[in-house]
Amino acid sequence: MDYKFRSNCPISSVLDIIGDKWSLLILRDMMFAGKKTFGEFSSSSEKIATNILTDRLQTLEQTGLITKGKLPDNKKTNIYKLTEKGIDFLPVMTEVMLWSNKHLNEHVSEENQKVAAMIQKDKEAFIKVMRSRLAD
Amino acid sequence: MDYKFRSNCPISSVLDIIGDKWSLLILRDMMFAGKKTFGEFSSSSEKIATNILTDRLQTLEQTGLITKGKLPDNKKTNIYKLTEKGIDFLPVMTEVMLWSNKHLNEHVSEENQKVAAMIQKDKEAFIKVMRSRLAD
DNA sequence: AATTTTACTTGCAAAACGAAAGTAAAATTA
DNA sequence: TAATTTTACTTTCGTTTTGCAAGTAAAATT
Question: Domain containing B54 — which CATH number?
């Protein structure tokens, strides 16, 4: 099987998103922690600055990975959701999680190691379950 | 199947690497373009600044994803290689490539689209082939 | 009506970035 | 062997980004 790229592969085009740690953290929290609001993102243990969080949410929205909306009875709180394009990023984040679990495992709880082992066994099943959770 | 994380998943620990676009470009060029030297990395179309390239190569070495060596008969040119830890990052870069190909395809050559379709059909086979290339 | 919450904005010092020029060791060329 | 070129950086400095901390206005709660 010959995998040969004749021109630059398009990875560089996505680097404004995945080459930014705060954007990745937001996507992680949306995908794996079910977070939806500015306050929830702000409360992550990594302590993102509020001006940076604002900036990254705007960038993710402008590049079509998330949308910003409101609940019908609440004009104040923004609700952020992943778009289809954003949900399609799940395999990337899943592989990042698995890589981290394997290579940075001195920082990983035993509980998370077990979950990662289950995911490793059947990535497709995991992604299917997560997709259906996020599609709500 | 219940995938439930009881504590923070370890993604944030890896963000110094994958949350940096220049590091990702270097890893891409090593994995998919077979690049090994400072000059080759420097010649990528994204035009990384030489002081930044130096900095990122040092960071990747210090975090154990690449090694820096020389050829036996050449004391001048540095040869960079992926470590096992670095090669394990292949699935992440593969998913990034597939995501880019799907969502940024107006920038993607027809040739690369065909290659991406082949990869999508059998990711495991692709990763196996690439691993054996890189393990040399 | 008063207070709290939410999602920001602002000011500013520090850090990072990146263009461009320079440098020294090592290789190549004449 | 001397001159030139190549390689992998380092340095300078202006610009941009980051991030802390305080402030703000609209909306919700008390």
Answer: 1.10.10.10
Is residue B9 domain-resident? no
Chain A 90-109 contacts with nucleic strand C (CB below 7 A): none
| Domain span at A74 | 13-83
Are A78 and A101 in the same domain?
no
Which residues between 31 and 60 in chain A have a beta carbon less than 8 angstroms from any beta carbon of chain B?
32-33, 44-46
Rounded to whole angstroms, how far apart are CA atoms A66 and A60? Answer: 6
- Answer with the residue of higher pLDDT: A23 or A110: A23
Amino acid B1 CA to nucleotide D18 C1' distance, rounded Å: 41
B24 within a domain of the structure (yes/no): yes
In a domain, residue A2? The reply is: no
| 3-class secondary-structure state, position B42 | helix
Gap between the Cα atoms of A57 and A114, Å rounded: 32
pLDDT in tens, B63-80: 999 999 999 989 999 999
Q: What is the number of domains present in chain B? A: 2
A130 and A111 fall within a common domain: yes
What are A114-132's pLDDT values in tens digits? 889 999 999 999 999 999 9
Percent over 70 (pLDDT), chain A: 88
To 10 degrees, what angle do helices A90-103 and A123-134 make? 130
